[in-house]
Amino acid sequence: MLDKKLENAFNDQINKELYSEYLYLAMKAKFAEMNLPGFVNWLDVQVQEERAHAMGMFDYVFERNAQVRLEAIDKPEVKGSTPLEIFEQILEHEEYVTSRINALMDVAEEVKDRAALSFLDWYLKEQVEEESNVGGVLANLKLIGDDKKALFMLDKELATRTFVAPVIG
Ligand code: FEO
């Protein structure tokens, strides 16, 4: 059983993870329009990761004999039109998600739910990894500038990313 306030906070985060999936799906479509299959693949892995993050919490809420309530998912808005601009938005978004995981942990702390805190530790570590991955691609894109050949090479590199289903918690 979960404290009602914590149950609501988990449901809110499930919605944010599903929104992340939706946002990255929209970005994947943008990269497909740009004919960059490696970037499309990178986003595709990201889409699957976000679904896994949402489902990890979805299953956990049930495991704690609490209720999952799905709300509407906001329309995703891709702000930029270049790979650099899109990756700037991805980093900004991941930093936001990190702040939301921290806020969720604040609620778990407030209601003294140590089991939930321990479960959420995985998400905190995952956010460090996510920000680092995205930051790495962003740094490459900044170096590349307008060099089309270098962008082509980076696209080849991003094509090698594969999805590995995470073991959450
Ligand atoms: Fe689920 Fe990318 O954070």
Write the SSE topology.
Elements: H1 4-33, H2 37-63, H3 83-110, H4 114-144, H5 148-158
Helix pairs in contact: 1-2, 1-3, 2-5, 3-4
This protein binds MU-OXO-diiron.
How does this structure look, described?
With 169 residues, this protein is an all-alpha fold. It has five helices and no strands. The protein starts with a helix and ends in an 11-residue tail after the last helix. Bound molecules: MU-OXO-diiron. MU-OXO-diiron binds next to helix 1, helix 2 and helix 3.
Provide key terms for this protein.
single chain; 169 residues; binds MU-OXO-diiron
In short:
The chain is an all-alpha fold.
The tally of beta strands, per DSSP, is 0
Q: Portion of residues in helices?
A: over 70%
Cα-atom radius of gyration = 17 Å
User: How much β-strand is present in the residues?
Assistant: under 5%
Total of helices:
5
The description of the largest β-sheet is:
none
> What's the average pLDDT?
98
Shape: elongated
Bound molecules: MU-OXO-diiron
Q: By helix and strand content, what is the structural category? A: mainly alpha
Sequence stretches where pLDDT stays below 50 over 5 or more residues: none
